[in-house]
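Last lecture ended with a question: if I hand you only a sequence, what can you say about the shape of the protein? Today we answer it with a concrete record. The protein is Aldehyde dehydrogenase. Below, first the input exactly as provided, then the predicted structure, then a couple of comments.
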Amino acid sequence: MNRRLFIGGAWVEPDGGHYEVTDPATEQTVGWAPEASRDQVHAACEAARAAFGAWSATPAEERAAVLGRAAEIIRARLVPYAELAQAETGATTGTARGMQVGVAAARFRRYARVEPAEWPIAPQINEAGPMGKAGVMGALAVRQPVGVVTCITSYNNPWANTAGKVAPALAMGNTVVVKPAPQDPLSVYRLAEALAEAGAPPGVVNVVSGRAVEVGEAAVASPEVDMVSFTGSTAVGQRIAEVCGRSMKRQLMELGGKGAALVFDDADLGSAVAGIGTTFAFYSGQICTAPTRVLAQRGVYDRLVEQLAAYAGRLKVGDPRERDTVVGPLISAAHRERVESYVELGRKEGAVVVTGGERPPLDRGFYVSPTLLADCTNDMRVAREEIFGPVVVVIPFDDEEGGVALANDSDYGLIDYVWSADVARAFRVARRLRAGGVGINTVGRNMEAPFGGFKKSGVGRDVGSYALHAYSEVQAIVWPG
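The predicted structure:
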């Protein structure tokens, strides 16, 4: 399968030829992705600019109808789309269907619901002065589209992550240029096909892929681009922010995480173990929201480590297409080596490898066994840096004050977690955590709640109505009452 670039509503042969997309479970070729040139990226940005005027002027109900039709197309093709996503990412069947393609369809459905784009502000009584006579001033706040948005997506979920950017951006009247992660771009082209079939006009959605750094750089730096929405590492996000700052481009950044999970002595250990255990299973730990840094109160520390090790040991690692597989492969051989290097670093730093730490006995695929590192301290690199794999570190703490201090002693602040039977304490602790979200006795999400990070975990908030704000400028209109 040789894909072409999608620019201005046309499928365009790539100047840079094609590169191989590899199935991380089988190490076989999934297909061939197009390598865009810098000029082709600029052409995509220009196509998005040319389409912006008409699309932003299209009634919100008509834009919503396009998104609704796209949702139905994606849902109708869930199985073949999920099979492609699974081949590109190594996700298990349930994850590919439910959390990748299924969530993408749900996000398009969500933004097919029209919300008010303006709201009144209470009138203000002004006294006479240099600005004029006394009077009452009325005001209205209006959400306006930003313009052309470059969407740079992560490799762990090409469907849901892309939909989470594109759907609210289009709903607000923006046009987009999508630069997918180089490891799994084929799914994003399928999404573009669905949108075109649903009636998105030429130029409203453009997709350009490539392994070369210059592809992403051109999509960020183009003078036609008004905003960049990025999901990925903090290091790359910092470089993008520097470029955006030079021309005051708007930014939405969802970056790295090192989620702290505080487990108090009175916690339901079964619930805590199941929640923390999602780090091993969900995307094989390749997810920024995972509770990878477990802070266990001393009274429960030994039991928690024991139960986490037993839980990890029961998880089947292997072919993600097999029904009983829980832990699939990492995205690439290079990333597997990175994760393994962190496990070895943990050993050298003094952590105890309670379980895992080695490759499972499989003939092929980029697998790492679920790994638990105990007796860690918060100054270890394995406790401070994002590993992005099925690796959990456990650190003891004495009391509430110490646990909160440990949790906040991090460069990251995306999502933290608290497990405690004392609900009042759980909420008290949650409010003291410097994180964009806190799960209390759960790793579940409310998909209308704002999502984003404190500190180096990002800038801005999306999801639900917050995404509509993220992809808009707010204009004030004032008049004499």
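Comments.
1. The longest helix spans residues 38-57.
2. The radius of gyration is 24 Å.
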